[in-house]
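Thiamine pyrophosphokinase
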Amino acid sequence: MALAPTPPPPAPQRPTMRHSSAFLLPSPAPGGGGGGDPDDDAATVALVVLNQPLPRFAPRLWSRAAVRVCADGGANRVFDGMPELLHGGQDPDEVRARYKPDVIKGDMDSVRPEVKGYYSNLGTKIVDESHDQDTTDLHKCIDFIAKNSSVANKSNLCILVLGALGGRFDHEMGNINVLHLFPNINIILLSDDCLIFLLPRTHTHMIHIERSIEGPHCGLIPIGMPSTSTTTTGLRWNLDNTSMSYGGLVSTSNIVEEDKVTVTSDSDLIWTISLKN
């Protein structure tokens, strides 16, 4: 009598990675959480400022960050932009002293000499990497935070990047490439209009939607490689083992319908969602 074939073992269940934009709320989340899992009150925020105009919520994020790094010309944006964002007759130099970067890092081709000298005199660390022309300033800053920062050993580190979107398209694509270069670090690129982050294929993703500040428009973009199978819940047009690729279907202009969105894919995806003014 022939024996029935042994069924294959079930595929291992992927761990769940949780995401939240609670760091953008006007008041800190209970317990002081800064990002990641909305139920995790120990999340640690690092802030990177690139060379684009500061978004309106920059002062709020600055106050919640454990370390603040300006990428080269990002120091100019803080120097010029923080006094403009903080209305009410405050003295510009008092504002600049209060919003002093911990580090200015990059190839130093964009930061103005007077700005670099001003912050250096206030104790900001200047890290000149003009010898390295193979990596972007954002790559240099992320690598610095991951390797040298006092928060580097935090497993729940969240790096918020201001000024990564907008401006030159090649800069934007370089910044998105950094997300793929550091898939194990929670990096969120922010502008006044939207935020984006990477959804690594190694996890199932639970995205908590803060409806007061984000949505409803969202997208899932297979930048880097095609996806042969992506499944979602919580969207108006959910994907069900759907293939996505450039030259084929890309899930843009989707709509968030529920407070939690789940995403499972066989490929790394970029998640993007609009921010409300």
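thats it. Residues 29-41 have pLDDT under 50 and may be disordered. The first strand starts at residue 16 and ends at 20. bye
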